[in-house]
Amino acid sequence: MKHCNEEKGFSLIELLLVVVIVALLATIALPSLLKSKSAAERAATIGTLKAIHANQTGFMSHKGRYATLSELNDYTGKTLGIVAGTTLIRGNYTFYGFPTVPADLRNQYQILAIRFKDHRIISALSLREDGRVDTLIDEL
C-alpha cells in the first residue's frame, strides 16, 4: 500500500489573506455605495419637487390659488407621500410648504425638502412657484 502525505485544502494563512482582501475591498467600496445611494435619493427628491410644481400649476388653473401640501397630495390621489400635519414625508426627506394658510397661497408658494440625520440638516432643497429648484444645504 502506498501512503499519500499530500493534504488538500487551504491553510490558515491563505484564509486570513482572503479575509483581509475582502475587508479592504469593502472598506474602499462602501463609502462609494453610500454616496451613490444618497445621490439617488436626492435626485428622486428633485423629481418629487418637479412633480409638485407641475401639480401646483394644475391646481392653480382650477382653483385660482396654489395648494397646501395636504390639498396637493389629495389632488394627486395621494401619490406624493404621507401627510403629517402640514408636512409631507417621502423617503428620507420631509417637505414643508409655505405659506400654510390657503388664503395666502394666491400668488406664491415655497416648498422646502429637508433631510435630517442625527437631528441636524444634511440636505435642503427649495422649490418656488417659478419652478426653480435650489440647493440650500448639501452635506451628503
Compile the SSE list and pairings.
Layout: H1 12-63, H2 69-75, E1 82-84, E2 87-90, E3 93-98, E4 110-117, E5 120-128, E6 133-138
Antiparallel strand pairs: 1-2, 2-3, 3-4, 4-5, 5-6
Please state the CA-atom Rg, rounded to the nearest Å: 26 Å
Q: Averaged pLDDT, please?
A: 90
User: Strand order, biggest sheet?
Assistant: 1-2-3-4-5-6
Distance between the termini: 69 Å
**Uncertain spans, ≥5 residues at pLDDT below 50?**
none
Structural notes for this entry:
The chain has 140 residues and is α+β, with helices and mostly antiparallel strands. It is built from 2 helices and 6 strands. It has one domain. 42% of the residues lie in helices and 26% in strands. The protein has a 6-stranded antiparallel sheet, covered by helices on one side.
Key terms for this structure?
about 140 residues; alpha+beta; about 40% helix; rod-shaped
Summarize the structure.
The protein has 140 residues and is of the alpha+beta class. 42% of the residues lie in helices and 26% in strands.
